[in-house]
Amino acid sequence: MALSTLDTNKVTYFDLNNQVNIPLNNSIQLQKDAEALTAFMAENVGPNTKRFATLRERFDYMVENDFWDANVINQYDFGFIERLYDFLAETNFTFKSFMAAYKFYAQYALKTNDGEWYLEGYADRVAINALFYAGGDEELALQLADEMLHQRYQPATPSFLNAGRTRRGELVSCFILQATDDMNSIGRTINSALQLSKIGGGVGINLSNLREAGSTIKGIANAASGVVPVMKLLEDSFSYSNQMGQRNGAGVAYLSIFHPDIMEFFATKKENADEKIRVKTLSLGITVPDKFYELSKLNADMFLFSPYDVEREYGTPFNYVDITAEYDNMVANQNIRKKKVRARDVENEISKLQQESGYPYVINIDTVNAANPIAGKVISSNLCSEILQVQRPSLVNNRQEYDVMGTDVSCNLGSTNIVNLMETPDFEQSINAMVKALTFVSNNSQLDIVPSVQKGNNELHAIGLGAMGLHAFFAKNKMMYGDEEALDFTNAYFLMLNYYTLKASNQLAIERGESFVGFKDSSYASGQYFDKYLSQDWQPKTAKVQALFARHNFPSQEDWAALKASVMEHGIYNAYRLAVAPTGSISYINDATASLQPIVNRIEERQEKKIGKIYYPAPYLSNETLPYYESAYDIDMRRVVDVYATAQEHIDQGMAMTFFMRSTLPEGLYEWKNGRTNKMTTRDLNILRLYAYNKGVKSVYYVRTYTDDMEEFGVNECESCSI
Questions:
Q1: What is the domain partition of the chain in residue ranges?
Q2: Where is 166: in which H helix or E strand?
Q3: How many CB atoms lie under 10 A from the CB of residue 692?
Q4: Percentage of the residues of the chain whose pLDDT score is greater than 70
Q5: pLDDT of residue 720
Q6: How far apart (Å, rounded) are the C-alpha atoms in residues 213 and 222?
Q7: Most CB atoms closer than 10 Å: which of 534, 546, 581, 655?
């Protein structure tokens, strides 16, 4: 049998899976999902998988037919590869849900060129990933295989999909660029967006340095076109360029909330926007300094400043001026053109747009920089708002060459599966393997098509290890999302991630005799970074969480003191280590809830192309865990903020935090709604964004709304950056 001859009308697994959504005797038929999984493996995977007599025959076929990279395989003695496969077989991996198996074979497993036969099972994809990331180190390959097959560690989609393949895209998940205020830079930025979208994930581009529409160019008034036409060019570039047809190109434009084109920027996403300005697929994000919140609180006017004039007065691009510190000076400076709006009008416009489209993402840029341990300034973010790294501007000449090459951002991502990592026999060893795997991707990424990105990658060796399955862990351990025990666990888990990734990066610096560029000017080198861990006791406070961590080596203040001394003496290799990206299809394969967010439904319904609806029960769903699985749409979003803010304390970059709102809010959910309309209003979103800001959350990803007619809308989930 081949896949083209598979009669989907005769298979049983879709019907069995659909029965999960049909209660029987007032109970969810969870057993039907297990039956659907068994049927899928028997009716679809088994008959349509190409068989090989020996492992050697499999590897020879995959290399000779240009599926697997011989250079990866030839780093190892084949006897070791056989031992690796024996180890994988002993683990006896099985998928835990129909959705997990379906997603893997639909999206990740290699098929023959004609698409007729599966060439990889899950263990094969894990094996080639482990061989690739280990770079010839047998011990590390075995450790990584162990981490991935036990689903404690999951590389991001581009890494997991492409590792070890001959014909592949790049492994890096996302990029961040900035344009400066001249045509050469804009042209170079568009070219870079094309190139990066072709090879990798999503691209974030900051346009705040560009002069506003109607600004003067070379003494000619009203000559500048502003940021909107550049956004249109970028949108077309992303639509044209994709990762060898495997993924849609995707990008986000960021703009400072103090840019004069901010209202026109928002207007590009309005449903009634003129087609000349409307952007359909380009995402929108804003960078918001503390000053905006101050002006909004006072119900004051706010001034929007011409980036060209600001750069001329301060001698640095607009992005690099501290608006909160310089605001009054800029207002008083007659050489800086400005226009006036009401701060609350802008605030309400943000909320209106979030209600209508889910955009814009919000980056609390002063919060980001106050916590940033690296010398320099973070000015922007990526497509999913969790990557926050320093950049330096470039100067491009008329030949599109760099007179001054700055640094831009690339980041490769991976995620811990919280439920499974808490079962690891050795937390430190697991994290150490993950840091090495992510660092291997950074060290082996070919990014010379955009030299500023390559330079940033070579200097910083940045990685982004995150987490998924938090709500599943809460439910399995009978904690309500956002309660005292949940926050206690979140604090302890991410402190552990921080400590052990720091320790692993310190060990890399010792082994390689190298730290990231700029380490000496960081708060790691001064030791200041460690002060908060030495000034108080961070041990878990509740009995349940203490018991959960009893089997792990939870770092003491003495451990932190020893790590501080070692880091100050030897450095760390990775300038950035942690970031919580959204998790897409890969969370189904891992039997995990998405990133840190609460579930939407206990039985999730997904519309699959050409197939119809597939149902996915929440991980570990049972009569016992049912009460702990509240829908995100029924949870006070302040509880979500509390969870993310608790994790943020230990994360050097950011997190993709989503707000889930009903168009008609549940009675009693928010006390400020008492006596008012129960419909969601701009005021509700204003209050929640301010709450997140006051809690120290660095970014709000987007707003997803559940309407009264049971439809969800908001930002389309991005597969480019998601894990």
A1: 1-148, 174-409
A2: none
A3: 26
A4: 96
A5: 46
A6: 7
A7: 581
